[in-house]
Design a protein that fits this description.
Layout: H1 3-15, H2 18-25, H3 29-43, E1 48-50, E2 55-57, H4 59-86, E3 91-97, H5 106-116, E4 120-126, H6 129-137, E5 143-146, E6 155-163, E7 165-170, E8 180-181, E9 190-193, H7 200-212, E10 218-222, H8 226-234, E11 240-243, E12 254-259, E13 266-273, H9 279-296
Parallel strand pairs: 3-4, 3-5, 8-12, 9-10
Antiparallel strand pairs: 1-2, 5-13, 6-13, 7-11, 7-12
Helix pairs in contact: 1-2, 1-3, 1-4, 5-9
Length: 300
């Protein structure tokens, strides 16, 4: 039994006339009659009562028709799901991100992706850069948003967002009313910083800035998450140098100040496995790049 036999049967069941059914199927009437007979023989029961004047479904034929119609509905659904999956429009995508990403480009990318492919289920994990590299190697996430650089030949990455650094101060600090801050004025301040192993690129950038200003920061407190660092600044435990997008994290007791000195920009990169041929991953990268380009020209 082949699908064409079932299509012949359904067409004849709709027309109840061999001539009209054969015309719709673009075949001659004798081959259609022969195919229906072969189907009945294989099934072991009659599908139609035939007389010279009319063709009529048997009771078994009617029940069989109802079931075959369900089969074709499921087949059509399977084809649709297959097509959507091949286009990256159905399935699941697991995304990792550093704690600062939700304050810059990540929400815009996720919003664009959700709007474009609503059938894909997103699973999000807040992870450090190093954790994301490990999870990517272990196939526990599909894409990530990390702080570069990345030294792993099995992974692809590209910078999608860059921003300046600012100083986060308690609102009671002597410099809180200044419009900007000279880094040299911070040499005796207690610094709050994250461990280097979590994001070595950003860590080294902050340390280098301080050293260029003539001092090594006095790190008195470490915290893993950017939100925690800002909260500790609000609590008066020290100051911090953070990406400027952290200003979107509204926290009572903290003020952000521009650095007087020219500072290099810190970046967010999107990262994925080199050998990943997933249509969903490729769709996500395509939408992410478009969202970033729209954001950069102010259309987002």
């Amino acid at each position: 039994m082949e699908l064409r036999h079932l299509r012949y049967f359904m067409t004849l069941a709709e027309e109840l006339h061999f001539g009209r059914a054969a015309e719709r199927l673009h075949i001659a009437q004798p081959p259609l009659s022969q195919q229906i007979r072969q189907l009945e023989t294989e099934l072991g029961f009659e599908l139609f009562h035939r007389t010279k004047r009319k063709v009529q479904l048997t009771e078994a034929g009617q029940v069989f028709l109802d079931e075959v119609q369900q089969i074709f509905k499921q087949l059509e659904q399977a084809i649709q799901v297959g097509r959507q999956t091949s286009r990256g429009e159905m399935g699941q995508l697991v995304v990792g991100f550093v704690s600062s990403a939700p304050y810059n480009i990540l929400p815009k990318i996720l919003r664009a992706f959700r709007s474009s492919v609503p059938e894909v289920r997103l699973e999000l994990h807040e992870l450090t850069t190093n954790e994301q590299l490990r999870w990517l190697r272990e196939s526990r996430i599909d894409v990530g948003f990390v702080r570069p650089p990345v030294e792993d030949d099995t992974l692809n990455w590209e910078i999608i967002f860059q921003e300046s650094l600012v100083v986060a101060l308690p609102d009671t600090h002597l410099l809180a009313n200044h419009s900007n801050v000279c880094l040299r004025s911070l040499k005796n301040e207690p610094f709050i910083l994250f461990p280097r192993i979590l994001a070595p690129g950003l860590y080294d950038l902050i340390i280098s800035l301080c050293q260029q200003a003539g001092f090594s920061p006095n790190v008195t407190q470490e915290a893993i998450q950017m939100q925690t660092i800002v909260s500790l600044v609000a609590g008066g435990l020290g100051i911090a140098i953070v990406p400027e997008s952290l200003q979107n994290l509204q926290r009572t007791g903290v003020v952000y100040k521009i650095v007087q000195e020219a500072t290099p920009k810190t970046a967010i990169a999107i990262i994925w496995r080199q050998n990943d041929t997933s249509a969903i991953v490729q769709k996500f990268l395509q939408i992410a790049r478009l969202a970033v380009s729209l954001f950069s020209i102010g259309h987002f």
